[in-house]
Amino acid sequence: MNYDVILIRYGELALKGRNRDQFEEALARSVKSVLRSFFKVKVRRNYGRMYVELHGEDAYEVMDRLKRVFGISSFSPTIQVDADIESIKERALELIRQLDPEPRTFRVVTRRADKRYPIPSMEVNRIVGTHILRALPKIKVDVHEPETIVNIEIRTEGTYISCETIAGPGGLPVGVSGKVLLLLSGGIDSPVAGWMMLKRGVTLEAIHFHSYPFTSERALQKVRDLAHKLTKWGGTVKLHVVPFTEIQTQIREKCPEDYLITIMRRFMMRVSERVAANTGAKALASGESLGQVASQTLESMDTINKVISIPMLRPLVAMDKIEITDISRKIDTYELSILPYEDCCTVFTPKNPVTRPKAYLAARFEEALDVEALVNAAVEGTVIEEITSKTNEAVNDLF
């Protein structure tokens, strides 16, 4: 079937009131961004809907790209028809005949956004449904669980018919919620946290703590590859690579072993807060999940948070490992995350880390360190890499 237009719906954006226009413009920019390099299409919008005019492009190739655009609730490949009822009847029949296999049951759903149209929605449903029943004797109407729904949208800007509705990823358009700095390790959790933050409309930058030679160049490349996966959803990601070897060496030499992870993460927070200030990020984000490991108890989170004033977001905090792993598979980061290249956290994990650290004890142990000098050196030595998306691969249905 040669489709004319992909009709895009964006349900959550309709709730944004006075900010609606800003959100729709951001979504339009996202749609244009993912399509412009690959297709000669035109994107336009009208109240409550967005349209991708295909101009001969393959609808399913275009829709594979749209599955990665946050802010889209669903979309449909449509044919655009004249608004007279005879054209609607014939083209709806033509569309349902093209389906393979031919459905056994159907229903017609008409949305008459243009209230000037003289025929009520229920009457359009009846006329079109009767026409299909007479032309296809093997098909029946099922208003509860039909195999196919013939959707008819009668709008001031045009009349559109479709038989397929594909779920989008939902959420908000990237860029409408400000900037967040993600603590990106090489594990399963942090890329999922980054993906979930992108879904809430943030612009994402990432920070990674690299302890060469304790962690290898392959471990750093793995993090770059994970950041690259996130660019499929949010565009270019700036990756801030922090030299962390000296800090970890000093901590290991001068602080109690059971507090190594706690003090190490407090330094990560300090450095991240400074980098966030330099980039304009309004919050930090991490892949921590409550109780998942010893350093992720409430007491530990509280002790680690004491050294920063910037908000710390933990989108996975109430999720278990199975839920997190399921998402990592769906966004295609899981296989990368399980590659056996250790990050700076796993290399220096003590045998018996404290699970309920005290902030006053951590601060006392840190008195053996020149905290400000170590943080300054790490921030000044940070290297910024731009991770971009250049591949032309399709994605599978996600949600």
Automatic annotation (TrEMBL):
Chief localization: cytoplasm
Taxonomic source organism: Brevibacillus invocatus
Gene3D superfamilies recorded: 3.30.2130.30, HUPs
GO CC annotation terms, alphabetical: cytosol
SUPFAM superfamilies membership: Adenine nucleotide alpha hydrolases-like (SSF52402), THUMP domain-like (SSF143437)
Keywords: ATP-binding, Cytoplasm, Nucleotide-binding, RNA-binding, Thiamine biosynthesis, Transferase, tRNA-binding
Subcellular localization(s) per the UniProt record: Cytoplasm
Keyword Ribosomal protein: no
Domain THUMP: 60-165
Pathway(s) annotated for this protein in UniProt: Cofactor biosynthesis; thiamine diphosphate biosynthesis
UniProt-listed Enzyme Commission number(s): 2.8.1.4
Enzyme's top EC category: transferase
Protein family per UniProt: Belongs to the ThiI family.
UniProt function note: Catalyzes the ATP-dependent transfer of a sulfur to tRNA to produce 4-thiouridine in position 8 of tRNAs, which functions as a near-UV photosensor. Also catalyzes the transfer of sulfur to the sulfur carrier protein ThiS, forming ThiS-thiocarboxylate. This is a step in the synthesis of thiazole, in the thiamine biosynthesis pathway. The sulfur is donated as persulfide by IscS.
Any GO molecular function: tRNA binding
UniProt-recorded name of the protein: Probable tRNA sulfurtransferase
Reactions catalysed: [ThiI sulfur-carrier protein]-S-sulfanyl-L-cysteine + a uridine in tRNA + 2 reduced [2Fe-2S]-[ferredoxin] + ATP + H(+) = [ThiI sulfur-carrier protein]-L-cysteine + a 4-thiouridine in tRNA + 2 oxidized [2Fe-2S]-[ferredoxin] + AMP + diphosphate; [ThiS sulfur-carrier protein]-C-terminal Gly-Gly-AMP + S-sulfanyl-L-cysteinyl-[cysteine desulfurase] + AH2 = [ThiS sulfur-carrier protein]-C-terminal-Gly-aminoethanethioate + L-cysteinyl-[cysteine desulfurase] + A + AMP + 2 H(+)
Residues that bind ATP: 183-184, 208-209, 265, 287, 296
PROSITE patterns linked: THUMP (PS51165)
Biological process according to GO: thiamine biosynthetic process; thiamine diphosphate biosynthetic process; thiazole biosynthetic process; tRNA 4-thiouridine biosynthesis
Origin: domain of life: Bacteria
